[in-house]
Amino acid sequence: MYAFLAAYSGKDPNTSPINTPLIKIPLPNWRITYNGLSKIPGIDKWFQTINIQHGYTCNYQLGGYGTNVKFDPLQGDFQDLRDNLNNFIPAIEAGAVSITESMNPVIGLDITMKNSLQFKAEWRKTRNISLSMVNFQVSEMSNDELVFGTGYRFKNLKITFDFAGVQQQTDGDLTVRVDFSIRDNKTLLRKIEENINQPSNGQRILSIAVYGEYQITKDFSAKLFYNHTLNKPILTAGQFKQLSIDAGISLKIMLN
């Protein structure tokens, strides 16, 4: 477990502490947003907002954490305590340990122009590494995703509805947006005792999301959406392409 923490946190295994798996001083997560480009003279005539974003989060988890009842500190130093199979008897046991890192995004650009036209581009990366003490195996899952999107807001759009023969006209904003993403998911199994690295899963996911949302009143809106997702295997044989499509209408009511 301590070798796992040293390997995936970039520390020297010869100097890493082995007295506790708990991290006393966790590293901070962060999110950075810069919006100063839209204030440059000349650019501010065309662009309302230009946001450059970067974010990082990391979670460290222990599963089945507890004190080892076989450990007896009165018998000597913990490095000398061994069982009948000559394995070390640790003072603390954990069934699994995992590290989840996410850069959401690595770099992102969000633009809104003066004419209500919107553009979005993001590069996202995530990684989850888990060590199981049951089968002595490291599972490493990684995601790499590119997202592109554009949209437009039609302000003060007048639409006439007919409810049971009674016509009523509304004056609201219509937001139309199209998002496209391509994501690679890969899973690698590292069997420690056998010294085998084996890919177990790999997918390339292409998705297109289109929606139009109309704000009928300040508390009521209607949304028409269409999502198209194609899942294509890229690493392992025996898997098939999958296509999923969902579309519909959703109504949202705000209760104050």
Structure explained in plain terms:
With 256 residues, the chain is mainly β. It is 3% helix and 63% strand. The chain has 1 helix and 11 strands. It has a 9-stranded antiparallel β-sheet, with no helix packed on it. A hairpin with a 3-residue loop joins strand 5 and strand 6. The radius of gyration is 27 Å and the shape is elongated. The model has no long low-confidence stretch (mean pLDDT 88).
User: What integer value in Å does the Rg equal?
Assistant: 27 Å
Estimated share of beta-strand residues = over 45%
| Biggest pleated-sheet summary | 9 strands, antiparallel
Uncertain runs: none
Oligomer: single chain
Strand segment tally: 11
What do the pLDDT scores average to? Answer: 88
Please state the structural category: mainly beta
Biggest sheet: strands side by side, in what order? 1-2-5-6-7-8-9-10-11
> In whole angstroms, how far apart are the ends?
51 Å
Q: What fraction, in percent, of the residue positions are helical? A: under 10%
| Tally of individual helices | 1
Helix and strand element order: HEEEEEEEEEEE
What is the approximate shape?
elongated
